[in-house]
Design brief:
heterodimer, A: mainly alpha, 70% helix, B: mainly alpha, Rna Polymerase Sigma Factor, Chain: A, Arc Repressor Mutant, subunit A, 9 helices, 64% helix, globular
Chain lengths: 204, 190
């Protein structure tokens, strides 16, 4: 008959305990020594720590190349993202803002339809647009302008395009707008001889 | 007071050994060497063969990268390796595997008149008689009894290890214990 009890019978446990107490037999000492010596000899090498493994990986040429490539790419991206915007591109948006505020000044100039010589307009414009002596407040106020994105500066017309636009305005008789454009262009390209270039362009 | 290493499980010790801690194996070996050796000696009834399988089992464990699978304990896993090695040895040498005999427990049931405490106390303590009584058991009953005795395995673990239903394991153990009680008590004077 099959006994389906889950809990062991105390009498059965006593029998097992009786056997445990009175059973002899040990593996020979030589067998113990052989097995333990084999276990020690063939024990896997301890795994190095995380930093040690990283350092070992760095010493392999394959990983050296990989790390160098990643570092190089990261450096290039960092340089591209953090490179300062050229001064010319920074000046243009500022002059655009200022040209609007300076419009009354220019409007106050003689309303002569003939184009005024650049030699006379430029000093006025320079005086009007010349930055005040640098003060901490002013430099702080200028900071947002300096942060303008490069994409905004790229959208501005080139020198050649600006000159052509001035010629077109003059030909159309809109000298006031032409003078404003010229002032703005002079602000952007202070080292350029704009009247001479205008003259050359007109001759062409 | 037990030191921390004594409370570390067998599975953790094996993992430590796999990670290069040689001392963990010594603890693991000390815990199980005696039980495994006695199990093999009693099951095979040959000391030389038991030593060979014992050595083979431990070397297999040393050189293997595997761990006990699923919910199996290290102890079950170790005794299963040893059992498989012994069966392999029997096959290799053309010995009929007695553990695979189909055995009808009902045919071997004999009246059990040894359940009284008085009779239990008079069990023989003679080493030779204990061993002879074990060898008198049918092989599959002896295996279950030895796994319980030396492996200290629970019945479900024995069922999983031997691949037989739990109820069969229970009945084998029951019949083995009844027969051992009878054999060891028979000739003791009242």
């Amino acid at each position: 008959m099959i006994d389906s009890r889950q809990t062991p019978d105390p009498a059965d446990e006593a029998l097992i305990e009786h056997f445990r107490q009175h059973t002899r037999g040990e593996p020979p000492a030589s067998l113990d020594a052989f097995i333990l010596a084999t276990a020690q000899r063939e024990a896997p090498a301890p795994r190095p720590g995380l930093w040690k493994r990283w350092w070992l990986a760095c010493q392999r040429p394959r990983w050296q190349m990989a790390f160098a490539t990643v570092a190089g790419v990261a450096l290039m991206i960092g340089l591209v993202l953090r490179s300062p915007v050229p001064q010319q591109e920074l000046a243009a948006p500022a002059s655009l803002d200022e040209s609007a505020s300076q419009a009354p000044v220019v409007a106050a100039a003689p309303a002569k339809p003939a184009p005024a010589p650049m030699a006379r307009i430029a000093p006025q414009a320079e005086m009007a647009l010349a930055p005040a002596p640098a003060s901490p407040v002013q430099s702080l106020a200028d900071e947002p302008k300096a942060r303008m994105s490069k994409s905004a500066a790229v959208a501005l017309p080139s020198l050649e395009q600006g000159l052509q636009e001035i010629l077109r305005l003059r030909q159309a008789g809109d000298t006031k707008a032409a003078d404003e454009k010229l002032l703005a262009l002079h602000k952007r390209f202070p080292k350029e001889d704009l009247p001479a270039r205008l003259e050359a362009l007109q001759k062409r | 007071m037990p030191t921390p290493i004594d409370s570390v499980s067998d599975e953790s010790l094996l993992t430590r050994y796999r990670n290069g801690d040689g001392a963990s194996f010594e603890i693991l070996y000390a815990r199980h060497r005696q039980g495994l050796y006695r199990f093999l000696v009693s099951l095979s009834n040959k000391a030389e063969l038991a030593e060979e399988v014992f050595q083979d089992t431990w070397l297999s464990l040393i050189r293997s990268a595997t761990q006990p699978q699923g919910r199996a304990s290290f102890r079950t896993w170790l005794f299963q390796i040893a059992r498989n090695r012994l069966i392999d040895h029997w096959r290799k040498h053309g010995v009929h595997n007695p553990l695979h005999d189909s055995y009808d427990e009902q045919l071997h049931v004999q009246p059990d008149d040894t359940a009284s405490p008085e009779r239990q106390l008079s069990l023989s303590r003679d080493q030779a008689r204990l061993e002879a009584a074990l060898q008198a058991l049918p092989e599959d009953q002896r295996e279950v009894f030895l796994l319980r005795l030396h492996g200290d395995l629970e019945l479900p673990q024995i069922a999983a290890l031997t691949g037989v239903p739990l109820e069969t394991v229970k009945s084998r153990l029951r019949y083995a214990q009844q027969k051992l009680q009878r054999l060891l008590a028979e000739e003791v004077p009242a």
